[in-house]
Amino acid sequence: MPTFTAPDGTRLAYRIHGDGEPLLCVPGGPADSAYLGDLGGLSAHRRLIVLDLRGTGRSAIPADTSSYRCDRLVEDIEALRGHLGLARTDLLAHSAGANPAAQYLARHPDRVRRLALITPGSRAVGIAVTGEDRREVARLRTDEPWFPTAFAALEAITEGAGTGSDWEAVSPFFHGRWDAAARRHQEASRPDNEEAVTFFAAEGAFDPPATRAALAGCGTAVLLLAGEFDVNSPPRAVAESAELFPGATYVVQRGAGHYPWLDDAGRFVETVAAFLA
User: Fold this and answer.
1) Distance in angstroms (rounded) separating the CA atoms of residues 213 and 219
2) CB-based contact 53:66 (threshold 8 Å)
3) Is this prediction's pTM over 0.90?
4) Which of 30, 112, 151, 168 has a CA that sits 20 to 30 A from residue 275's CA?
5) SS3 state at 99
6) What SS3 state is found at 36?
7) What pLDDT score does 133 carry?
8) Which whole number is the average pLDDT over 229-249?
9) Are 157 and 166 in contact (CB under 8 A)?
10) Cα gap 193→100, rounded to integer Å
11) Residue 227 pLDDT more than 90?
């Protein structure tokens, strides 16, 4: 697996899928980027350069734990762009990875041609996801056999009383289909570096007013793709985020959860490839 050196000396790794024009990909979590795979076959259209965030996958654990902070990850993205010798790049980010990606665009608008945010987190832009947002999306699944147990667990988590078993029980809400493949993927996508998760949102990680102001002046083409069934990044929050980017394209993938390339790879790839083209 190829590597490069971050500004603080941490050795970072990245994966390559496919050929053609590069697309830098930032995973969520922070988790091992392997869960992205080749994004449902998007590698047939672009060469995916998938970053392993520091302390995850095959990237090194940094000496300074404060460097896990979201705003500091921005310079890891910039270092990867420089390492690849790209004057400008297209960028794709999933889930929590949308936070450093949005901050990257705010800080380096001249380095990004197109930005695709897939079921994005929105802490960097100060958009909160409420318990009612999650309940509204969850209730779309009332006919599923697992719904009663999963919804009770979601209620406990929303009220701040969730346990480890509750987090396990809500897993079906992250997928459009809760089948064997979804179960395997859910397990593989779990963050395994508690420090990386804890320090990601440490004090100072986000400055929403400054980020929003910078994004308002960006002319970069931006796609925000929501999953109809996604309780993690509900469509309402994604739609509100889309309003912060001038001329953004907002799409809801029907029948999809938090990992839309798993639920309908064909539709996902068609949407993203068309935007990037």
Assistant:
1) 13
2) no
3) yes
4) 30
5) helix
6) helix
7) 95
8) 96
9) yes
10) 18
11) yes
Q: What is the pLDDT of residues 155-188, one digit of tens each?
A: 999 888 778 889 899 999 999 999 999 999 998 8
Find, among 109, 2, 108, 107, the residue nearest to 48 by Cα. 2
Distance CA 19, CA 270 (A): 17
DSSP 208-219: HHHHHHHHHT--
d(CA 156, CA 45): 42
Cβ atoms of 100 and 124 within 8 Å: the answer is yes
Sheet holding 112-118: strands in order across?
Answer: 3-5, 11-17, 47-51, 22-26, 89-94, 112-118, 221-227, 249-253
Token pair, residue 259, equals: 């990992």
On the CB side of 151, how many CA atoms lie within 13 Å of its CA? 15
Q: Cα–Cα distances in Å, from 180 out to 171, 185, 186, 262?
A: 12, 9, 10, 12
Secondary structure of residue 41 in the 3-state scheme:
helix
Percent of the chain at pLDDT exceeding 90: 92
Domains of the chain with CATH codes: 3-130+196-276 (3.40.50.1820)
| Contact between 227 and 261 (Cβ < 8 Å) | no
For the record, the structure tokens of 98 come out as 């949308």
Residue found under tokens 């804890």: 198
Q: Comparing C-alpha atoms, which of 251, 194, 181 is closest to residue 35?
A: 181
Per-residue model confidence (pLDDT) at position 184: 93
Q: pLDDT per residue over 68-92, tens digit each?
A: 999 999 999 999 999 999 999 999 9
